Amino acid sequence: MTTRPLIFTDMDGTLLDHYDYSFSSAIGVIEALVEKQIPIIANTSKTFAEMEKIQQTIGFNSPFISENGAVVYIPIGYFDTQPADTITQGYYWVKEFCEPREHWLQLLDSKASDFASDYIGFSTLTAEELCEFTDLSAEKATLALVRHYSEPVLWTADESRKRAFIEHMNSLGANMLQGGRFLHVGGHTDKGRAMDWLAQVYADKYQTSVQTIALGDSGNDSAMLEAADVAIQIKSPTHTFPKIITDNKTMQSKHYGPKGWAECLQALLLESSTSTPSFTLEEA
Ligand SMILES: [Mg+2]
């Protein structure tokens, strides 16, 4: 049986440059992978609206995983038949892994009102206000605000109060994820579980075994990297490689961001077949 490689990639700091969000140094390798019909699947904290725009910019028509593993979007018709356990939304088959954002907003409102003056919630911000807290442009801030599965909050009180808040929200069933600037209130999802689900869909639909190759730069990629058959850590200009625990093949890039992304996938999938004997590529 042939094995089909599937690439699952983080976006910010991995395929997109940490500072200017450019992916230009990876274009050549992206084109070569598309030529070989190897799917490149974004697995990101970004929202649907942000990702739809990026998919168009890069020219991807593959499924993508959004909001840190909360949801998988598969363009309708990408597979011959609709995968089990998905719903249809607009142009996509959608697999959800947690309650929607309204659930978390309601929980904050009804069961955590004691903390209401300790943070600023995304849902109360305008795009202009979000621009002031981030480096996002007005257009990108507008897309970032439209979240479907989690509520990011900007903490304004002290650390001990924050710990109390996290504990309280955990007791209500929320999963609290600390991002660079924002604390995310959402469900128990991770990039690894969503990757595994989608990889199984590929295996079923193509009647083949699959090899998951995951790329990421940060701690929120660890679950995905540890679940993957090949874990590729992309070097970050802002922190050292997070520790991951896996018995599978691992690689660490020499270059930062998209240049490191291209460097590793070039070596793994595109160099002469004698150097990558474990892969047999099957044309779809
Ligand atoms: Mg990242």
UniProtKB/TrEMBL annotation:
Highest taxon in the source lineage: Bacteria
Pfam families from the UniProt entry? Hydrolase_3
Q: Which PANTHER family match?
A: HAD SUPERFAMILY HYDROLASE-LIKE, TYPE 3 (PTHR10000:SF8), PHOSPHOSERINE PHOSPHATASE (PTHR10000)
Q: Which InterPro entries match?
A: HAD-like_sf (IPR036412), HAD-SF-IIB-MPGP (IPR006381), HAD-SF_hydro_IIB (IPR006379), HAD_sf (IPR023214)
Protein's name according to its UniProt entry: HAD-IIB family hydrolase
Gene3D superfamilies assigned:
HAD superfamily/HAD-like (3.40.50.1000), Putative mannosyl-3-phosphoglycerate phosphatase, domain 2 (3.30.980.20)
Q: What species was this sequence derived from?
A: Shewanella electrodiphila
Q: What's an example of a GO molecular-function annotation for this chain? A: hydrolase activity
**What keywords are annotated for this sequence in UniProt?**
Hydrolase, Magnesium, Metal-binding
- SUPFAM superfamilies registered for this protein in UniProt: HAD-like (SSF56784)
